[in-house]
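A reminder from the course coordinator: this example appears on the midterm review sheet, so study it carefully.

Given structure:
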């Protein structure tokens, strides 16, 4: 109670003056339109009901992404951070992921590489501000196998998720730190992991870089909540644990992680830090961005309530918001000379530009959210996706229209 009272005092003081200067990121075009708020635009699939557009074209097919936002804020790592650029180049991370045929395979290769750099017993000294580049350069090894020094060294399940998160960030992916704990721990302790946003699967995916595993069901990788919900099914679980391979010297293929044990560990789940900008934005201890209040706790009415002061939610969109999608909106008015006025909406951390493909042939790159689509006789197709500052493309939306 005293701790929370002190945090409340600090938060009140910072509301008047915050000495920490945080650098933010761009999520959408700086010239993003405000017209949508005034009803001038509708989602492209809703234009079927528009008498204006119906006069000039028929929609033959559409896949329009829908952005889901959390009511809780999350702070993203700015792409200009020099240490991330050096980390990627100095340790040849592009070569690490070069053999991957998919985005998800690249994430697994990067996880294997991360786990291969140190043994679990190479307990890394605490750092005031975690820096994966400095960790690699220090190359600390616990050669005498000294026991872990609580309060002075990272636990492996804290260290590897942080380390892996910054490796992912250097490659243009978006990670976050998460924690699982059995019911008896009441969420106060537990096992640290990483979740990473996947454009390929349109979801957050749980990765355990300490144990070097992830979960799959029907060939689809899972997030923490999906594993958590398996606690309450009556049939035997069909979740599979997929084990990675690492070369740190402590990989034992004979030791298998039991899925039943892991499901029980997913009792209380939480996003441990509502930020991944640790390299660039630094805060003193007790700052709201670096305290209990930066944690988001998942509330499940099927479980015993836990007494804490952390923000909590049972709304899936709050816990699993979406990233890197592009929505197509259209101005609800009669076009001129076969033109349709479009507006692209996105929520892409470190947004750079839109990539537009017309009729599978003409490619346009632009940071402008406004686009005049000149329809040609017959079938017309437009595909659009966002691209971030690392050159990583986002999730595509498309529309096919036949001009009358």
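Designed residues:
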């Amino acid at each position: 109670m005293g701790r929370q009272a002190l945090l409340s005092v600090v938060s009140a003081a910072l509301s008047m003056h915050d000495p920490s200067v945080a650098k933010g990121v761009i999520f959408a075009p700086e010239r993003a339109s405000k017209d949508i708020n005034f009803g001038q635009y509708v989602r492209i699939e809703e234009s079927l009901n528009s008498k204006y557009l119906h006069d000039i074209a028929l929609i033959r097919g559409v896949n329009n992404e829908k952005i889901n936002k959390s009511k809780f804020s999350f702070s993203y790592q700015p792409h200009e951070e020099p240490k991330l650029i050096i980390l990627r180049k100095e340790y040849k991370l592009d070569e690490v992921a070069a053999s991957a045929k998919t985005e998800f395979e690249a994430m697994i290769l990067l996880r294997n590489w991360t786990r291969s750099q140190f043994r679990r017993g190479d307990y890394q000294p605490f750092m005031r501000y975690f820096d994966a580049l400095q960790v690699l350069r220090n190359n600390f090894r616990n050669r005498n196998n000294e026991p872990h020094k609580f309060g002075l060294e990272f636990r492996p399940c804290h260290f590897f998720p942080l380390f892996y998160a910054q490796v992912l960030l250097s490659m243009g992916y978006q990670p976050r730190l998460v924690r699982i704990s059995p019911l008896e721990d009441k969420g106060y302790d537990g096992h640290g992991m990483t979740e990473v946003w996947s454009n390929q699967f349109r979801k957050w995916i749980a990765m355990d870089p300490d144990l070097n595993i992830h979960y799959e069901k029907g060939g689809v990788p899972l997030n923490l909540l999906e594993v958590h919900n398996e606690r309450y099914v009556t049939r035997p679980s069909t979740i599979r644990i997929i084990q990675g391979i690492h070369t740190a010297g402590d990989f034992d293929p004979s030791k298998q992680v039991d899925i039943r044990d892991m499901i029980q560990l997913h009792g209380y789940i939480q996003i441990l830090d509502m930020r991944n900008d640790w390299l660039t934005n630094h805060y003193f201890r007790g700052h709201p961005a670096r305290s209990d209040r930066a944690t988001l706790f998942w509330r499940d009415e099927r479980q015993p309530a836990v007494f804490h002061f952390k923000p909590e939610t049972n709304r899936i969109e709050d816990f699993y918001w979406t990233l890197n999608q592009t929505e197509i909106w259209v101005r609800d008015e009669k076009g001129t000379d076969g033109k349709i006025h479009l507006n692209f909406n996105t929520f892409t951390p470190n947004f750079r530009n839109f990539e537009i493909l017309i009729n599978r042939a003409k490619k346009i790159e632009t940071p402008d959210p406004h686009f005049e689509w000149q329809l040609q006789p017959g079938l017309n197709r437009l595909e659009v996706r966002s691209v971030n500052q690392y050159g990583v493309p986002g999730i595509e939306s498309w529309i096919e229209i036949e001009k009358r």
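The longest strand covers residues 378-388. The chain is about 20% helix and 25% strand.
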